[in-house]
Amino acid sequence: MQALVLLLWTGALLGHGGSQNTGGSLEDSPAPDTTGLPVEEEDPFFKVPVNKLAAAISNFGYDLYRVRSSMSPAANVLLSPLSVATALSALSLGAEQRTESTIHRALYYDLISIADIHDTYKELLAAVTAPEKNLKSASRIIFEKKLRIKSTFVALLEKSYGTRPKVLIGNPRLDLQEINNWVQAQMKGKIARSTREMPNEISILLLGVAYFKGQWVTKFDSRKTSLADFHLDEERTVRVPMMSDPKAMLRYGLDSDLNCKIAQLPLTGSTSIIFFLPQKATQNLTMIEESLTSEFIQDIDRELKTVQAVLTIPKLKLSYEGEVTKSLQEMKLQSLFDSPDFGKITGKPIKVTQVEHRAGFEWNEDGAGTNSNPGVQPARLTFPLDYHLNQPFIFVLRDTDTGTLLFIGKILDPRST
Predict the structure, then answer these.
(1) C-alpha distances out from residue 338 to 122, 239, 348, 350, 357, Å
(2) Mean local confidence (pLDDT), 366-393
(3) Domains observed in the chain
(4) What was the pLDDT predicted at 282?
(5) Alpha-carbon distance 294 to 95, whole Å?
(6) Using DSSP, how many helices (H) and how many strands (E) does the chain show?
(7) Nearest of 32, 27, 107, 111 to residue 336 by alpha carbon
């Protein structure tokens, strides 16, 4: 069980899990058993099949993020792991048992007992890509030229994932043009056309694409947006457009173990962004990253308290285009690239040769309304609270309804695109 978030309200500081209490009580603590130890029960949230599946593939997403971040310690990271997970999950439909088990372990399917994972996945995709969510996410399996694919695999792929595989024609220019056209159609033109050359000797290319532009529940006043300092570290500062709200309603907590301030801002469509802001600009983010799991994020969602704060947040527009092949090879999926068994797809030996990811993500002042929910009363604070995202931070975009990790980012420099 991950450590619970420390909460601050009416001057009280609550210890992890309520075990240390210096000024308040945590009413939701588990009842002790006869040994005096807390009894852990499964969160009812995860008993819903679609939520349980969402937790599994989100944990895959946090794993993928950690590997990507460790490979790029000095650079921004932007990922929509859902699109990559979807491509892998769809590919597992064509795998024989040994290879299927390899994929399912990486996606944490071996820890859940959902009778038909793929039908549940269809339900999950429909939920998180509903128009009000503002998320566009799509995946595609691309095969080597002129490969004969079994019709049973194509039918299963269409039934649960709503997509058809693409077989290359062997002309690099035309193949790239067709892939770009598909991406443009899926993302409604929000993702730039790739100018990268088609890789040589493709056997299986997995492609995951995603785009998100969120709308805050409460919009920012653009007249209050101004250039302000963003501290890259203790010595280097850059000026970036910073949005501000002197009376922002947000959900907040302080985690002393991770030495970071956590805030959650609601977006329209039952989505929210959780920010992890270290206490110091030079603090290593690794400890925060290692804590990220579906269960920990659900704990945060349950434990944070609504407060009023002075908020500043940089305008952000990020994009990513590249491979996540090496990252997946680091995640116990190397056998997919060596000698997998995709006998349910074709009679010819094939293997994964490349996994590509394209993503776009932005937020600005746009929002649904000018006032916070009048029915929500913030907790009383005995001190003014400031929350300034003016130094490196991590953010998690999450679907509130299912708990799905939609996007995750490490922002070391908000100017980078």
Answers:
(1) 29, 47, 14, 9, 21
(2) 76
(3) 47-214+318-362 (3.30.497.10), 216-316+365-411 (2.30.39.10)
(4) 87
(5) 27
(6) 10, 18
(7) 107
**DSSP assigned state of 130:** S
Strands 367-369 and 216-218 come out as parallel
The answer to whether 87 and 357 have CB atoms below 8 angstroms apart is: no
pLDDT for 11: 34
At residue 372, does pLDDT exceed 80?
A: no
DSSP H stretches of helix in 129-281: 151-161, 172-186
* pLDDT value at residue 4: 42
Predicted confidence at residue 349, as pLDDT, reads 97
Q: What is the pTM of this model?
A: 0.89
Residue pair 312/227 in contact (Cβ under 8 Å)? The answer is no
String of DSSP letters for 57-94: HHHHHHHHHHHHHHH-TTS-EEE-HHHHHHHHHHHGGG
Per the model's pLDDT, the better-predicted residue between 369 and 366 turns out to be 366
For helices 117-128 and 49-71, the axis angle rounded to 10 degrees is 80
Interval 36-47 mean pLDDT: 71
Q: How far apart are CA 367 and CA 348, in angstroms?
A: 52
Closest CA to 305 of 4, 3, 8: 8
Distance separating alpha carbons of residues 216 and 59, to the nearest angstrom = 26
Question: pLDDT, tens digit, for every residue of 44-69?
Answer: 999 999 999 999 999 999 999 999 99
Cα(227)–Cα(225) distance, rounded to whole angstroms? 7
DSSP helix/strand/coil, 376: coil
